[in-house]
Records
---
Amino acid sequence: MAAVDTSLPAEPTGAAAALAEAHAQPHALKLYGGWFCPYVQRAWITLVEKAIPHQYIEINPYNKDPSFLALNPRGLVPTLAVPVGEGEKKPLYESTVVCEYLDEQFDGEQHGERLLSGGPYDRARARLWIDHVTGKIIPGFYKLLQHTPDKAYSLDDARAELHKNIRSFVNEMATDGPWFLGHTFSMVDIMLAPWAKRLWLIDHYKTGGTGIPKSGEGDETWDRWNAWFDAIVERPSVKATWSADERYILAYKRYAEDTTNSEVAQATREGRRLP
Ligand SMILES: N[C@@H](CCC(=O)N[C@@H](CS)C(=O)NCC(=O)O)C(=O)O
């Protein structure tokens, strides 16, 4: 059985290193993360967007340290340690749950607008498209990235599936601004940002790449996607949580060769729901 990636570089680099360093001091709110992890990046972006004081602790989730498992029995990052009363802490995990908690808990004026805002219908609709990102687009990303010639499906099949799921997401986007909700940046944008930021790895590793047309070379749906994409990869919180590009080439090689035994990769290989 292929090894899990315990050999990954231990620290973030570039902008993410500066951010981690700025949040290295002990703080009651702790984010346990891995620099390479897109699910962590969701939580990290939320912390930055809302200017939430916290401590960032880099760990390698593939080393299932007992102290880590005591916080999160699933053994996955992001894991958040949340202060509850005098010196007491409780854990939270699952990136969508962590981000929603941060959004609700840090609600003062200094934290800006709510990322999941509006009435019950607006919030439910946002969650619906977050569910689409998590349940359809992200699995499609890994299916394409982990494609190898011996698979039962072709590279074109994987590309078509990813395109279909991105397009149904884009068709729900407002047209009057770059973000999913138009002029309002929201949790829906954050939930997809880390994988959008990693799409170039598919171009790097897979023949034909993502196959997503450039603006003006496809139809209106792809033009709308490209407007969102250009805005999200330039969003300061997304850039601030990004390490040097060559680190991701290293980290994702095992996905591209389909040799990693990370839980996400195993689930993808076996056609199971992602962890
Ligand atoms: N559903 C989880 C997924 C988190 C996840 O898969 N994290 C990866 C790193 S990107 C991890 O901790 N993997 C450890 C392992 O596979 O053993 C979430 O949304 O937080």
---
Amino acid sequence: MGRRGEETKKTDDRIEALDRELSRLGIRIRDADQRKVLDEVFDEVTLHALYKLANKKVITAVGGSLSTGKEANVFSAGCGEGKDCVIKIYRIRTGNFNAMGDYILGDPRFSNIRKTKKDIIFAWTKKEYSNLSRATEAGLPVPLPIAFDRNILIMEFLGEGGIPYPQLRLDPPADPERAYEEILDLITRLYQKARLIHGDLSEYNILSGGDRLWLIDMGQAVTPDHPSAHRFLFRDIKNINRYFGNRCTILDEHDILKGIVGEDFFTP
Ligand SMILES: Nc1ncnc2c1ncn2[C@@H]1O[C@H](COP(=O)(O)OP(=O)(O)OP(=O)(O)O)[C@@H](O)[C@H]1O
Ligand SMILES: [Mg+2]
């Protein structure tokens, strides 16, 4: 066997060992039928992070897939006695991580990280965790962050009876006027109270359920001192106006921006 072959075999052995450890902890993931997807998501680094989370009893089960996105896979999971939670795994092998650099490197909280692909993904995961914490502390309706390790984020499950709340795009609001107001209020509070700009706001990243709207997917959210902060905020506002434009009366996007950022607008 060549050197390359030996390396691969060693990795396979380590992966198998981690697999066994995880099954010992009652967590089964690799016997599902979507083998290829699983191989792409559950590489050695990811399995090791999962093992640590399972060993600490943060997670007790990995459930079905909720979503496969550009950068991440989202699974339902168990977090202790009958409690649902969500595992978001940023893919190390096949993630589209190039765009991540722009958001991370302009953010003073994360500007000193090393710049390898893995480092950026780990920093991104940590950033999503801390963004969710900030938003939670400011009282915004976002999933409560529970834990993170490397490329894995564990958060509260938003849903009822094991069924996740639908994205706004799949469950258009019965009262669009009210939903529009609610979202503008969320963007405003996110900026003014949590000091965050979502940065990828659309009907895809808003869930609707329990008689309210929820903001999710906050990895790219930045603070107002990010050099592109107001450009991202303006883009979020335009996205929301685009969605509501043919559903209810909308406000002028420049007026909304000024209303949200207030005096910040004039600071250099
Ligand atoms: N906490 C949660 N509770 C219930 N469902 C969730 C939760 N988080 C995510 N989901 C579901 O998974 C989908 C994808 O999640 P999310 O938007 O965070 O990742 P993504 O769009 O794949 O991210 P990226 O674009 O960065 O790859 C959501 O649209 C939602 O349907
Ligand atoms: Mg999303």
